[in-house]
Amino acid sequence: MSVGDGAQLKQAIIYDSIIGNYASIEEAVLQRSIIGSDASVKGLSQSLNIGDNTEIDFS
Question: What is the pTM of this model?
Fold first, then answer.
């Protein structure tokens, strides 16, 4: 797993994934995922690939 500078992980379980700089992951379980820089993910349990400056809210 790789976590970029300034990334925020809150109540998250993440493995085999790449998290970009300043990304925000909250209440999520991610596996084999790529989350771009400045992206935001909330309330998810799956594999996900999203680009930079993207916001996803599944809660």
Answer: 0.85
